[in-house]
Amino acid sequence: MNLTLGIFIIILLITLGITYWAARRTRTTSDFYAADSKLTAAQNGFALAGDWCSAAAFLGFTGLTALYGMDGAFYALGPLVAFCTVLFLIAEPMRNTGRYTLGDVIRSRMQTRTSLLAAIAGTVVVNFAYLMPQMAGAGVLVRLLTGISYDWAVIFVGVSMIIYVAFGGMLATTWVQIVKAVLMLSAGAIILIMILSVVHFNPLTLFADAEQKYTAKYLLPGNYLKNPFDQISLGLGYVLGLAGLPHVMTRFYTVPDARTARRSVVWVMFLAGAFFAGTTLFGLAAANYVGQEAIRAADKGGNLTLPLLAQYLGGGKGSFGGDLMLGFVAAVAVATILAVVSALTLSTSGAIAHDFYVNWVKRGQVDGKTEVWIARIAAVVIGVLAIALGILAQGVNVAVLVILAICVAASANFPVLILSLFWRRFNTGGVVGGMTVGLISSVVLAMIGPAMRGADALWPLVNPTVVSLPLGFLGAALGTLISGRDTENEKRFDAFLLQVHTGVAPG
Amino acid sequence: MTRNGTSLEVAHASVKELIAEKLKYLVPMTIIFMVGYIGLTILAGFARDLMGLKIIGSVNLGFALIGLNYLLSWVLAIVYGRIAAGKFDPLAARAAMEISGRGN
Lengths: 507, 104
What we know:
The complex is a heterodimer of chains A (507) and B (104).
Chain A: H1 2-23, H2 29-34, H3 41-52, H4 55-68, H5 70-97, H6 102-110, H7 113-146, H8 150-198, H9 204-214, H10 228-241, H11 246-249, H12 258-289, H13 292-298, H14 305-314, H15 320-361, H16 368-392, H17 399-422, H18 428-447, H19 450-453, H20 465-482, H21 487-502
Helix pairs in contact in A: 1-8, 1-15, 3-8, 3-12, 4-5, 4-12, 5-10, 5-12, 5-21, 6-7, 6-17, 7-8, 7-15, 7-16, 7-17, 7-18, 8-12, 8-15, 8-16, 9-12, 10-17, 10-20, 12-14, 14-15, 15-16, 17-18, 17-20, 18-20
Chain B: H1 2-46, H2 48-51, E1 54-56, E2 59-60, H3 61-99
Antiparallel strand pairs in B: 1-2
Helix pairs in contact in B: 1-3
């Protein structure tokens, strides 16, 4: 445990050094929200990988595969395929039409205050639904790794993220993500090489051993996701939900143009995709060598599978190699949470300071210097709120919130975003309709489902995306048609299209 | 001003051409990855036995299709990058020049 703490303190010092460096370079709003749009494709690709691989991915996928076989591999594949949607349909238009936030895109298309308010609601709900389980997860993980209490662990993570974001803005957040991605990928590569050397570089052995140990049923789908529609919901939620996650999408504002945004997506697809593919092999290896019983004994949900596997590969419990590997993987897991919560805090502070205060309350009449200060204060307030929620969440089943975040992103934010970019008749009524119906149907269905009510569920699916996503689109279409034609808006669409495809606004 | 006005019209025409070009490639590519991935989740949900069909050693059809989906995503990413750089970027650059009134 002391080794973990040591490695972690080194990582922490590096990130604080980065924040000090970044803070001196963060003056304008563009610095704060978008790192002055000066990142390269490779830098943003690494940062995206750091952003997109949450602790749920880093620890969860391996654990799911170890305990449930193929369903874990499904969980790991979705987040890669999701980037196809982003690459083909979202990344470049997003870069071309916005500056700092999701709200910018909706605002520049609709030019109405109501639509901006809807975009703010979508951003804040998704970000907090994502932030709360991350904080709770951080509490459990840091407590496990270092021995400090849950509450102090949450406070520690919250204070670190406030420091990164409030002082260093997007530049610090980005480099924290890059450091974390490099550490995560190195850990993955080391573990992969160790596993391959155990099986004499024949990965097929992993499957054969697993089949022998746990029967062929282990390698079949449906061990975790028993309802077939949950399987489909998961897929849809990933493939369309990523495009509706504001904290990932704002990463495209950190590069100079659409071309770089596109190339950064290709980077992340190879970096994160390789890691996700790796987790499937890690999970099988853990099931074979650590064993499901030992995995369940350490954590019922399997979240400690990867640290346990690393310990085994390093030489086992008590050996120096084993402790070193365990410490390294555990420290990377904490760094992972720090990188993700920072991005969420920054993105939420953009929605509150830039979208709500500056553009909604003050109608844009705020100078840049003041706006940066407001964004910093917003980051502190959001961070404190996240700490409070994280502490309150102890012992509460927060899994439903993870599902909710991705479900709302897919069912509310995605329809509104994609229709704003590509449908001429789409109007403010449609934005409000899509956002309201998508949000309410996701929240209600998730709350009455088995994730929240267990056996008393009024509705069978854990993940309601398969129903709430079509409802979100329906709400957007009905809202558009009911509110009548907005000819001004439709005329403006031609000019908006120029901007979507070239990045240059006429006029 | 008239020059700028006609230039904008030219820009609209260029962007129309760009959109047509994008549709030509993006529609089939989107259909391919959606069918590939959502189809896989449908098979996993409703054809569990089929997914257990052994392909190589203990690796069954399900895992083989998951592997194929990884490959497919990576290939599509590379292909899209090439098409975008070769076909979309020049058209977008031309339209951008026309919008800012520097085209002819």
